[in-house]
Design brief:
alpha/beta; Rossmann fold; 3 domains; four-stranded parallel sheet; 12 strands
């Protein structure tokens, strides 16, 4: 259309010589419209450049709140993990989804997972998102960078969780990892531990800032010698047995009395080397949900999910789409949780 005014359902109805109510039912997914006519309406909507208006839909939902009404719209959760089910092995990520989903529902949106696996390519996902008039995309953490190809980000409002997808220049919502690890270091010191070590996998980008926070905390704490962190090389990341020797060497050299780590299997590795927790070495984890430890950081991942939904809906409402030259970072602070694996030594 040549006008600068937004395309409305009435415009679509006029172009097809049908009733406005028919267009409304088709685009909102309600019953009463045949599949051929629905496809015809969706195609005309694409041709005219129709975009869903959440404000008007919200008003309609309010007016008809005593009836069964469709949600305002849909938000996509984009899962492109090599094995998509592995994303859900992380409790933190489950909580991201749960927090985001509940908050989205309060604003009239439904959060739906889209899996890029097999025949479901990014190109295919793009077509489905546009057909369903999806305006917002959430991208959870991924184990490696994604080749986005020519995916049309400019059509969508986008946020990402965490720090792993560095080639996606959009607003980010995540845990305040630096602040959380500095808090953990301080709490461990307050319990009487003096030689605090940090153990991490080299290729775990989502934990990079935890490591930075520990180094900063050590630099500030000049009363105790800084212990060099143990970083398992990339090639050993999935080989449990290959980590035991460097861990044993590091333990003998640095003699830590407490360890902070994001690695869930570290407690088991310590037992295999003959170290008892907490009598020989105290242990705290950067995630009490995924770290298999009862002492450490609560990242408040439900709140991270809630924040992500609020940020994304704000982007949608303000028509901010695509990549950003100045992406914003929204951080949720963690809190310390006491546990039996790190008792007080005082």
């Amino acid at each position: 259309m040549s006008s600068d005014l937004p395309v409305t359902m009435q415009d679509i109805a006029r172009a097809l010589h049908i009733n406005h109510s028919t267009v409304s039912r088709a685009l909102s997914g309600r019953a009463g419209v045949s599949e051929p006519l629905k496809k015809k309406i969706e195609e005309m909507a694409r041709q005219l450049g129709y975009r869903h208006d959440p404000m008007l839909a919200g008003l309609a939902h309010y007016r008809h709140r005593k009836k069964i009404s469709p949600v305002v719209g849909e938000i996509a959760w984009l899962n492109l993990w090599p094995k998509p089910q592995n994303l859900w092995c992380f409790q933190e990520f489950k909580h991201y989804f749960e927090g985001a989903s509940k908050t989205a529902e309060k604003h009239g949106y439904h959060l739906e997972e889209y899996i890029g696996e097999g025949a479901m390519t990014l190109e295919r996902i793009e077509k489905i998102l546009f057909t369903r008039n999806v305006q917002g995309i959430m991208v959870p953490p991924h184990p490696s960078l994604i080749d986005w190809g020519s995916f049309p980000w400019e059509k969508f409002s986008v946020i990402r969780f965490g720090y792993s997808l560095t080639n996606l220049s959009v607003d980010t919502v995540g845990s305040d990892q630096i602040g959380a690890s500095m808090l953990a270091y301080r709490k461990i010191r307050e319990k009487g531990y003096r030689r605090i070590g940090f153990v991490v996998n080299e290729n775990a980008e989502r934990n990079t800032l935890f490591r930075a926070g520990v180094l900063l905390a050590q630099a500030i704490d000049s009363s105790q010698p800084a212990i060099a962190p143990l970083v398992f090389p990339i090639q050993s990341d999935v080989k449990h047995k290959d980590k035991l020797k460097p861990l044993q060497t590091w333990l003998k050299r640095e003699r830590p009395d407490a360890i902070l780590t994001p690695i869930a299997s570290l407690a088991e590795m310590l037992r295999e080397l003959g170290y008892r927790t907490p009598s020989d070495v105290g242990l705290a984890v950067t995630s009490i949900l995924d770290g298999k430890g009862d002492a450490g950081i609560d990242q408040h991942s439900l709140e991270i999910g809630r924040t992500a939904a609020e940020v994304l809906i704000s982007l949608i409402d303000h028509n901010r789409r695509g990549m950003s030259t100045l992406p914003r970072l929204h951080l949720v602070p963690g809190t310390w949780v006491d546990g039996s694996m790190l008792p007080s030594k005082l």
